[in-house]
Amino acid sequence: MTLEFVWRLLFAFGCGVAIGVERQLRQRTAGLRTITLVTSGACLFVSLGMLMGNGITQIAAYVVSGVGFLGGGVIMRDKGSIQGINTAATLWCAAAVGVLSGTGYFAPAVAGTLVVLATNTVLRELSRAINAAPVANADVVRDYELSVVCREADEVHIRAVLSNAMYSEPLSFQSLTSQDCDGQPPRVQVTATCRTHPKDQARIEQVASRISMERGVSSVSWSAKEAEPAPE
């Protein structure tokens, strides 16, 4: 029994080292030692239950609860974003590998280790490739501002042209404002705000080109604001 216990502990230790090395190379909060301690500790608790004849399932549930508190300690909020969720999930999976090792299910423990490593390496590159895709492929919307500087006498006409252009594209028309400009002759800046999917950004340029040909227009410009998730 003692030899079997040592073998299971060493097996859990080896699986923890395999997972922990990858985490340590990436300088994560929970690195080599933390991951190895989680797998070894989970194995020890389950092995203790087997040695004492207590329910393994109940002890495994306690292990999961304990790792939950440990995982909560590595999750942090930084400037509105959540950091450390992947590390916490890795700790959770490492505990599962330790439980499998402690109960003698070595093949599932190896499979679990390989899955964790594949998730943190292969899928990492896939997620980076997805994140590097053009924003037009994402489910987002973006606010655009289209500004037109025209003669004061043509303000009403330009406002009407802008409104009609926004509705005809169609674009989600948000607001239309006017502001006096310094200098002579008197001029007015008319600013239209709309919201649309980034893939339809070319429509904004079409509207700007159309407005630039109107009489009394001296300049036309447009800009995009930060993208945000589209509403469900």
Automatic annotation (TrEMBL):
InterPro entries: MgtC-like_C, MgtC/SapB/SrpB/YhiD_fam, MgtC_SapB_SrpB_YhiD_N. It comes from the Bacteria. Keywords: Cell inner membrane, Cell membrane, Membrane, Transmembrane, Transmembrane helix. It is found in: Cell inner membrane; Cell membrane. Residues 9-128 form the MgtC/SapB/SrpB/YhiD N-terminal domain. Gene3D superfamilies: 3.30.70.260. Residues 144-222 form the MgtC-like C-terminal domain. The chain crosses the membrane at residues 6-22, 34-53, 59-76, 88-118. Virulence factor required for growth in low Mg(2+) medium and for intramacrophage survival. May be involved in regulating membrane potential by activating Na(+)/K(+)-ATPase. This is Protein MgtC. It comes from Paraburkholderia phenoliruptrix.
